[in-house]
Amino acid sequence: MSVRKLSVIYIREEVIVMCLPLAAIGAAAGVASAGLTFVGQRQQARQQARYQAQAAAAERQRFLQEQTSLRMRQAQEQEAVGRELEQVSKKSQAALARARVSAGEAGVAGASVQALMDDYMRQEAGYRSALARQQELGALGTGLGLEQAGFATQQRQIGINQPINRPNPLAAGLSALQGGLSGYRTGLDIQSRMQS
Fold first, then answer.
1. Residue from 53, 58, 85 nearest 161 by CA
2. Cα(189)–Cα(187) distance, integer angstroms
3. Angle at 64 between CA 59 and CA 66, to 5 degrees
4. How wide is the angle at C-alpha 70 spanned by C-alphas 68 and 73, nearest 5°?
5. Is the pLDDT of residue 19 over 70?
6. Given 51, 78, 152, 153, which residue has the most CB atoms within 10 angstroms?
């Protein structure tokens, strides 16, 4: 009978020896899982940071191109207005010269000729004033367009540069500890079931 008792004890010791490695394996698996999660989160945060940097650089480039486009359009409009003013001046000079010659050939002089000349000059001044106002409004529109583009790019940059969820080493350590304890507890649970 004593032999039988020893063999039961031996079997129980074998079960305990087998279960202790299971608890250790469970604890190691829990720690490894938490470690791998931390590494994965860190890689994901780095990739997100790289993406955001690239997207922010692309947005800055897009904004610079938009600014250049707006300024080029303004310069072209100003050049067109300048050419138009030059043509108006030439036409006005020619009209005044024709009016003087016509008045001289017709023998008209004095106040009526001067009134005709003043009318041509008034029309030219009105047209110049309208073109100058058009130029002012164009410059104002360009300024507003640049301001709007600045606001839009600022909003896009805010959308691009969202906070990056970076892994916390302390939280990862606590998670590893929790995973290890959970794995150890599972191993002990298996041991208790095997003993029963």
1. 53
2. 5
3. 95
4. 105
5. no
6. 153
Region class of 108: left (phi > 0), else alpha (psi between -120 and 50), else beta? beta
In tens, the pLDDT along 121-180 reads 898 899 989 999 999 999 999 999 999 999 999 999 999 989 888 878 777 777 777 777
Q: How many helices (H) and strands (E) does the chain have?
A: 3, 0
Q: How many angstroms separate the CA atoms of 66 and 74, rounded?
A: 12
Count structural domains, the chain.
1
| Paired tokens of 110 | 């004095």
Read off the tokens for 34: 């938490």
Spatial CB neighbours of 62, under 8 Å, sequence gap ≥ 6 = 153
Q: How far apart are CA 169 and CA 171, in angstroms?
A: 5
User: Which domain covers residue 21, as residue numbers?
Assistant: 2-195
Question: For residue 51, what are its two tokens?
Answer: 């993406």
The amino acid sitting at 78 is Q
Q: First-to-last CA distance in the chain?
A: 22
At 75, give phi and psi (nearest 5°): -65, -40
Rounded Cα distance between 149 and 36, Å, is: 44
Residue 91 DSSP SS3: helix
DSSP 155: H
